[in-house]
Write a structure and sequence with these properties.
Its EC number is 3.1.3.-. The chain has about 200 residues and is α/β, with parallel strands linked by helices. The protein is built from six helices and eight strands. The longest helix is centred in the middle third of the chain and has 17 residues, at about 115-130.
C-alpha cells in the first residue's frame, strides 16, 4: 500500500498561563496551505485519511476530507512530542524564542525533555497499525507533525537521529509498504504545491 505522510499546515503561536495544553489551530496562511493539499493529490486515489488528534493536524486534513467525502480517523498515537506542553512556538520563531531548542533541532535532536526512544516507538506502532488496517493496494494519507513524520522515516531508513529531515508545512512524504514487512521511502517533503506559501 501507499502511505502518504503529510506535515500539518502553519499553526498559531499559543501560550497558556494556566498550564493547560497548547493545541493551536491553523493560522490564516496555514488554512491556505491546507487547501493546497487537495490539488496536490488531485490525481491520487485516497482510500482513507488518518490524523493526529491535535487541532493543527485535524484542520489541515479538513479540505481534503471534504473534497473526497472522507471521514478522518483521529489517532492519539500520532500526536506530536509537544502535545502536553502549555507553549507552542511555530518553528520559524523558535530561533528567537528558544535558541537552545532550535540548535538541538538543527542538529537532528528532539528537545531534552522528550524520551526519543519512547516517542519513536509510539509513532511507529501507530503508523504500522494504520498500514495493517488497510490491506491490498490502498492509498492512505496520514496528517501529523514534523516530529512524527521524521520518527517514522528515520525508523524505516535506519537513521539514529530523531529529526533527520527539515519538513515544511504540508510537505508530503511517500512510503511504499509491502505486506512482507518491506518499507521503501519514495519521496521526502514534496512541497511544490505550497512553495509560494512557505
Amino acid at each position: 500500500m501507499h502511505l502518504l505522510l503529510v506535515r500539518h499546515a502553519l499553526p498559531e503561536a499559543v501560550e497558556h498561563d494556566d498550564g493547560t495544553h497548547a493545541d493551536p489551530g491553523l493560522a490564516p496562511q496555514g488554512r491556505d496551505q491546507a487547501a493546497r493539499l487537495v490539488d496536490a493529490l488531485a490525481g491520487t486515489p485516497v482510500d482513507a485519511l488518518h490524523t493526529s488528534t491535535m487541532l493543527r493536524a485535524v484542520q489541515t486534513a479538513e479540505p481534503l476530507a471534504r473534497e473526497r467525502g472522507l471521514t478522518p480517523h483521529t489517532r492519539s498515537d500520532l500526536r506530536e512530542y509537544d502535545a502536553e506542553r502549555s507553549l507552542y512556538v511555530p518553528v520559524a520563531r523558535m530561533a528567537q524564542a528558544d535558541p537552545a531548542a532550535w540548535e538541538r533541532m538543527r542538529a537532528g535532536h528532539l528537545p531534552e525533555h522528550v524520551d526519543g526512544a519512547a516517542f519513536r516507538a509510539r509513532v511507529c506502532a501507530g503508523i504500522e497499525e494504520v498500514v495493517a488496517a488497510h490491506p491490498g493496494r490502498a492509498t492512505v494519507v496520514v496528517v501529523a507533525h514534523a516530529g512524527v513524520v521524521n520518527a517514522y522515516l528515520a525508523e524505516v531508513l535506519g537513521i539514529g537521529r530523531d529529526l533527520p529531515f527539515p519538513l515544511d508545512y504540508v510537505g508530503i512524504s511517500r512510503v511504499v509498504c509491502a505486506r512482507d514487512g518491506m518499507r521503501k521511502v519514495r519521496a521526502v517533503n514534496e512541497t511544490a504545491h505550497v512553495a509560494d506559501l512557505l
